[in-house]
Amino acid sequence: MTETAKLMGVRRETVWRWTKADEFSAEMAKIRDSTIESLTFTLQQSALDAAEVLRSVMMDESAGSNARMKAATAILDRVLKAQELQMRKETENGQMTVDMSEWVDSATLD
Q: CA neighbours within 13 Å on the CB side: how many for 61?
């Protein structure tokens, strides 16, 4: 709060009083939510690049087998987690109920 007060050119007590006002708190919540949304979008965009890096390592026959296996495992882990999260979200919304363990158990890796 002290740093904010310095930046705003007001006393620390003034900032503290502002935080107690409903309108101020609501505006701060909007700013926080907007910032989180922007960060999430940026990370999602970076995730596409990261997935491509993992894919290129996995497909690179000149890479060591350990590196290729770690890349493949990372990809599969992330895909399964993403699918589980999506299924959980859909289940919570009453859209469907699927036991992911049955799907995983039936999957075969070549």
A: 0
pLDDT means per 10 residues, the chain with 110 residues, are 84 88 87 91 85 90 91 87 85 63 53
HEC profile of 44-93: HHHHHHHHHHHHHHHHCCCCCHHHHHHHHHHHHHHHHHHHHHHHHHHHHC
What's the rounded Cα separation, in Å, for the pair 22 and 30? Answer: 12
Structural contact between residues 93 and 83, judged by C-beta atoms closer than 8 angstroms: no
Q: Are residues 11 and 5 in contact, defined by beta-carbon separation less than 8 angstroms?
A: yes
pTM over 0.85: no
